Amino acid sequence: MNKLSYISNKYKENDIEGEDFGAELYNILNLPQKNLYGARKAEIIALLFGAITNTQVRRLKWPYVDMDPETINRTLSREVRMGNMVQTILKKEDNGARRIYGLTRQGHERICKTIGITENSYPLRNSIRFHEYALGLFFQTLISHGYKINFQLEQLISQYELKSTNTLNKKFSVRADGILYVYNKKYYIEQDMGTETIGKLVGKIKYYNDSSKTIIFSFYKAVQKLKINYQDVLFLDEKYKTSEKMKKALNDENLSNEHKKILDIYLSRNENKSLADAVAVEINAYSDILRLEKQYNFKTMRLWGMFNYILGQSFEKELCLKGMHLYCVTPELAYASNAFRRFGTKGKSCKIFKRLYGKNIVYERLKKAHGACFDECIHIENGNVYIEYVEDDVAGLVRAYLTYKSIMDSNDKLLIHCNSDSFAEKVAQLFCEKINYLGHNIIFILEGENEYYEVKFGTLIPVAQY
Q: Residue 2's closest CA among 391, 463, 430?
């Protein structure tokens, strides 16, 4: 599927909101629920995540339900006047402003006392920046989509934990933006707003100095919510009555990209209403998907930048070959990332293997071969099959690139999983720089499809269904 279809297919409203979301926050705090005023609940969000915005409150429907934006702003502004919160204003491209609220010393002391925790449990943030908002958004997204998590913000990683044996790590300590625990697995979170150079981003990897550690780079860029002209929707609905006509229109050079995207989202969401009715009911979802596409493009651009940089760095490249994972996510789509896929015989990868190679497969974790350590492998009659999720994991892309020639010359196979056809085609072209045909050993599969592909002259060629 194409990139917009992938985002549209993965996009979904919150699984948990309202009082259910609030209950999850109390679980994270390990406290019984308390009957608090809305303002105190808003302070809990700021305590846990570092910042709160009007938009977050409306989407989470906690602590305020069905309250209009102006009323929420007045409520939070009252907290500012009372000295419990501080406000930071971020200018938007349309000359508007986004208000971000965080706790003051007074507000922090009061909410900690109110809910009965020590202030050191969740230290006061030194400043309230857009960085804090984006980082908090990453964790909130996971919670609101059903993940049972625990997390900590701004954690200094000890030299003991880093297993440091060289002077490099003894001189420089590592402060992760956050640490996430999910499915009994530990992730180190690095939040990026596009302000750091690729070299500085990649440079953080060597200070962890451990290929067994998993780092998630959360990439966020402020993007305006894109407004959909409903008159355009009515025009498209009148002109393209059926799905067949809409699919043909996606290849029409005379149709604008904006119009194609509306049709693309409609088709990928399998709507059982007319286009006009579907957009009328879910116009905010359609606008959100178009905005998230830009976010996803930013994440992808940074991933490719990191990939190219790592190839020129021997130490970081070696960590990737040893099995390190460097996942790249968009905060608001974090719940869909393969960083959180389940492993083992009931996991996503094993299901793919079974569909491709039958049920009687032998599954293995952490297999060393071809100068690398692969997370997942199955044994087939004449060799092994390794899988890498390259559109989410830049280290997986590095492993695939550095081992595919060796695998081509063996009886083994490399299964490359991509979320979108555009990313898969770019990887295919990269692999085919000096080779016209990658052979039967290098296989591509796309998220949401039941075909697998081989590569000839840098182009994906469908081979068979599974």
A: 391
**Average pLDDT of 42-50?**
93
- Categorise residue 86: left if φ over 0, alpha if ψ from -120 to 50, beta otherwise: beta
Q: Return the axis-axis angle of helices 283-310 and 198-208, rounded to nearest 10°.
A: 70
Distance CA(52)–CA(73), nearest Å, equals 11
Cα-Cα end-to-end distance for the chain: 16
Q: CB of 263 within 8 A of CB of 236? A: yes
Edge-first strand listing for the sheet containing 85-91: 52-53, 97-103, 85-91
Asked if 60 and 52 touch (Cβ cutoff 8 Å), the reply is: no
Return all residues near 68 (Cβ < 8 A) that are at least 6 apart: none
CA of 319: how far to CAs of 211, 283, 315, 337, 372, in Å? 5, 45, 6, 22, 10
In what order do the strands lie in the sheet containing 451-456? 362-369, 372-380, 383-389, 413-418, 442-446, 451-456, 459-465
Q: pLDDT tens-digit profile of 259-312?
A: 999 999 999 987 788 999 999 999 989 999 999 999 999 999 999 999 999 999
Q: Cα-flanking dihedrals φ and ψ of residue 184, to 5°?
A: 60, 20
Span 122-150, pLDDT tens digits: 999 877 888 989 999 999 999 999 999 99
* H helices, E strands: number in the chain: 18, 15
Q: Domains of the chain (ranges plus CATH)?
A: 17-130 (1.10.10.10), 230-287 (no CATH), 341-465 (3.40.1350)
Q: What is the total residue count of the chain?
A: 466
Give residue 163's pLDDT.
54
> HSE on the CB side for 401, CA within 13 Å?
24
Q: Which of 281, 289, 296, 297 is closest to 258 using CA atoms? A: 289
Q: 203-236: per-residue pLDDT in tens? A: 989 888 889 999 999 999 888 777 899 999 999 9
Q: How many Å apart are CA 279 and CA 288, to the nearest integer?
A: 12
- Provide the 10 A C-beta neighbour count for residue 229: 11
CA 263 to CA 250: how far, in whole Å?
8
Distance CA 113, CA 115 (A): 6
